[in-house]
Each structure stands twice: as C-alpha cells, then as structure tokens.
Design a protein that fits this description.
The structure is a single chain. The chain is an alpha/beta fold. The chain folds into 2 domains: 217 residues, Periplasmic binding protein-like II (D-Maltodextrin-Binding Protein, domain 2, 3-Layer(aba) Sandwich), CATH 3.40.190; 210 residues, Periplasmic binding protein-like II (D-Maltodextrin-Binding Protein, domain 2), CATH 3.40.190. The protein contains 19 helices and 15 strands. It starts with a helix and ends with a helix.
Length: 450
C-alpha cells in the first residue's frame, strides 16, 4: 500500500484539522444489537468480493440478533484511506473499515477508532481464551498499538507473508555440477549467495526465455528491507521505546549482504512490475522474495513457462529459527456510532474471524487464515497448491512491521535509501541517516497527540 508523499501530507493536514472524537467508556454487557444494520467498507473485487459477500450473507441469515451487514466496495486501500480521512470526526464513517496498521494509527491521532479491547474481553460478547490462543500470535499482536496505550485498533481477517521463491530443478542442476553443496532451498545467507552466484553464470537447462540468467531479482521495497533485516536477527522498530531502528546491526548486515550480491553480479533489480515473477516462471531467475499472496500467480507463471519443480521457503537467515515478515490489512471499528451498532459490527468481525468462515475465506482468497485450527479443513487446498502448505507451516514464526502513524513516509524513505545502497552507497552511513529521518517523522506524527 503506497500513497504519494505529498498526497499523504495533504491528507494528514486535513485529518488533523478534524475534531477529535469524544469517546466515553461504554458498558457493552447490557447493549442490545438486535436489528442493527452496519456498513463494511472493503477493497476486495472479483472472486474475492464474491467470496466475502457469501460470508456476509451467511452471517446475515444465521445470526440470532437479526443484524444486517452491508458490504460496500470502496476502491483500493488508498481510496478508502482518503475517504476515511475526510469523514473522521463525523458520524458518516462506516461501521467497519479495512485498514493497514499504520492507517489505523493515523486515524487514532484524532480518536477515530474504537478500542476493541473491552469487546474482546467482554463476558457476553468477547472471545474465549481458547479462541485467542487459536490465532497465530504474530497476527493477534499486530493490531495492539503500544504507541496508543496498547489499544486494540483492529483484528486480522487474513495475512500474507514474505517468502523465498525458488526453482528446485535449477538447484538440482547446480548441485549435480558441483557448484553448490546443499540440498533443497538455501537456509543460510552463505548458501543463498553460492546458489545465486552460480545461477548467474550457469543458465537453467529448461529455461524458456533467452537472455542472461539471474541468481536473484530484488524488488526495492520497505517490506523487502524489513524481511531481510528480520532474517539477519535485526528489527526496524522498537515498540518499547517507540523508536525506529533502521540502523540496527542486523539491518546493516542484511544490506551489506545484498549490496555484495549486486557487486558480484549475482543479483539485479526487478526491471518492471512482476518482472521477477515472469522471469521466474520462464526459468530465467533462480530466486525471488515476494508475498505469499502471489503463490497462485507464480504457479500459473511456471505452468505457462518452463514447468519446473518449485516451492517456497523461509528467507535464508542467521537466526536459529526463521523470522517471517507477515503483513496485511486488518478490519477496524470507526468511532462515532451507537453502542448497539458497535456491538453488531463486532459480532460480524467475531464471525468473520471464526474457524468456519476463515476456512472458506482462505480457500477463496488464497490469503492465510488467522487461526491455526483452520488447517484441518484445508487438506484439499494444500494438495492443489503445495507451496501454500509449506508457507502455512511457517506462520508461527511471523512478526509484523511497525504499526505507527506516518509509516507511509518512512516506507518511501526506506525505498530511496535501499536503492542507493544497492547502487554502492555506504551502508552504515545511509542507514544512520535513514533512521534519524524516520524518527523525526515519527516524532512529528506523535506530537499530534500532545
């Protein structure tokens, strides 16, 4: 999710001119949500919208309170964000809205969202401890905001994860030629480098595209930066101190590693949108790192291209266990509505994130479900897309990127500095500068709360 820097600045100025919503503590235990109609703004289209509407219809026809959810497509994430900013401080916001964590944090600068904690913990309406324990820990934690007194400003209906995509057939060839000494996907940076460098000089025999072979195609993106930093034992943000840590030793080591791959000719930039996916499918690129949401598209690319054996794995790491970058928009409850509407909206979210609905949603959307118990109902889907199961089994290792306001600005900053590093800029100096700028942005955002 990307918004132009100047557009976002204008939106934030509009937001901060809005009156803060006065929120008083509500005793939800005695609220009656019967007969309420609530609106849900979402970004899903085509097959995913069809699947979502089926879930909504099932809830509408089966819930005991006669609640009606009206799901409305409102464009992409950026479109929804812009509409929300214009409406915050009024009663014209939807009852439920899709929002990335940094968007939710921005809304909360003017108390624009309901803290779901009392609803989650409610004896009458809340989740049991067994339910909470069924959520993948990283997914559950990602919507609790330390910068807002640990309020819960959303709940995850699905997630994606950064994965290493690899051509197993090509790796087998490189091993047979004595160019690498490991089986399966690389698990360490050293193995990854050895294979990427070997592939850049030894084309895959089954390739259907001509041209120079690539060991690794890197997409310049803040999520790639975070993923490689996590893999090298670092982090990009410290929730305890509410400070960015872009110059963390792990981040420096990760960027020096990638810079070295470029210097040795073992890695190249992705030259066009989804170009790495296309080249991977044609057998021209050995490794890519991308979102798990691309799994069906990679499958199609391989089937239409070189038809080799492929899979996904954790990004090669220096940590004892993988550290996986999970992300995705959550669903939030805008403030300004009656307690009856809020409880009704919450009951839909409780249903939407329940095991039965999650199994249907995961199969249709090909996102990851948020509950571990869903796996039992995904056997046929696992068989149809084996890499999905491989990725699913890594979800317990997931952590999230920062859920602080202004992260859009910081992501743009990271993109720029990451590109400079791959072009040869000094890593430590560049990340020290980036970290200083990122924390200035954060300070500016958080000052709005004073």
């Amino acid at each position: 999710m990307k918004i132009g820097r100047f557009v976002l600045a204008a939106l934030l100025a509009l937001l901060l001119a809005s009156p803060a919503m006065a929120q008083e503590a509500v005793d939800y235990e005695n609220v009656d949500p019967s007969g309420q109609t609530v609106t849900f703004w979402h970004q899903h289209s085509r097959e995913r919208e069809t699947a979502l509407l089926e879930i909504v219809e099932e809830f509408n026809t089966t819930n005991e309170y006669g609640i009606t959810v009206v799901a409305e497509y409102q464009g992409g994430y950026d479109d929804i964000f812009q509409k929300m900013v214009a409406l915050l401080g009024t009663q014209d916001t939807p009852n439920i809205v899709v929002a990335y964590q940094n968007q939710a944090a921005t809304y909360q600068l003017v108390d624009g969202l309901v803290d779901m904690t009392p609803l989650v913990e409610s004896e009458r309406w809340g989740l049991t401890q067994e339910d909470i324990d069924d959520f993948f820990p990283g997914f559950w934690q990602s919507d609790i905001f330390p910068s807002f007194d640990n309020q819960r400003l959303g709940i995850a209906p699905n997630r994606s994860m950064e994965m290493l995509y690899y051509n197993q057939s090509w790796l087998d060839e490189l091993r047979e030629q004595g160019l690498i000494d490991f089986e399966g996907p690389p698990t360490t940076p050293e193995q990854f480098e050895a294979a990427a460098c070997a592939a850049s000089e030894n084309a895959f025999s089954g390739a259907t595209a001509t041209g120079r072979p690539y060991g690794y195609e890197l997409s310049i993106d803040a999520s790639r930066f975070a993923s490689w930093t996590f893999a090298f034992g670092g982090n990009v943000y410290d929730a305890e101190t509410n400070r960015y840590t872009l110059d963390d030793p792990g981040a420096i080591a990760a960027m020096e590693f990638l810079q070295g791959l470029f210097e040795k000719g073992c890695a190249v930039f992705v030259s066009e949108q989804y170009g790495d996916q296309t080249n991977f499918g044609a057998g021209r690129t050995l490794f890519t790192v991308s979102s798990s949401s691309g799994l069906p598209f990679y499958q199609s690319a391989v089937e239409a291209g070189a038809g080799f054996e492929w899979n996904v794995a954790a990004i090669p790491h220096t940590t004892p266990e993988p550290v996986m970058n999970v992300y995705g928009a959550s669903v939030s409850l805008p403030a300004g509505h009656t307690p009856e509407e809020t409880v009704a909206a919450w009951l839909f979210l409780k249903y939407y994130t329940g095991t039965e609905a999650q199994a249907a949603w995961a199969t249709a959307s090909q996102y990851f479900p948020v509950r571990e118990s869903v796996a039992a109902g995904l056997t046929e889907f696992f068989e149809s897309l084996p890499p999905y199961q491989t990725a699913f089994e890594l979800l317990d290792y997931g952590i999230a990127e920062p859920n602080v306001p202004g992260y859009d600005f910081v992501r743009a900053l990271i993109d720029s500095e990451m590109a400079a590093i791959m072009d040869g800029a000094d890593v430590a100096e560049t990340l020290t500068f980036a970290n200083r700028e990122a924390n200035l942005i954060l300070d500016d955002q958080m000052a709005q709360l004073d």
